[in-house]
Amino acid sequence: QVQLVESGGGLVQPGGSLRLSCAASGRTFSNYAMGWFRQAPGKEREIVAAITPSSGTAIYAASVKGRFTISRDNAKNTVYLQMNGLKPEDTAVYYCASRGGSFLYRSAGNYNYWGQGTQVTVSS
Question: Phi/psi at 41 (nearest 5 deg)?
């Protein structure tokens, strides 16, 4: 069983930055693709970014490309989301997710394990 715990959310002004972290349990973290999703009020959960087990490939939602960077440190069982140039429309609960494979699906339904979420609010 994989457990994921997000941290690093909070309130930030437009144009500011935050770094989210997701700490994973288990011995097989290095074999899992990892993703970040977000869900705003009244909206469906959507992909933000995902990364392969070896960090060789990453994908991003068009709305965040160039502003957000996903990375992972397999030795620390941790995945990160660096968010720069934050906009009010980035406000959402951000979730860490994993799946037991290397293919980077964009649909939330393809991920097996989820964290509890961390709130990101971008407001002046």
Answer: -55, 130
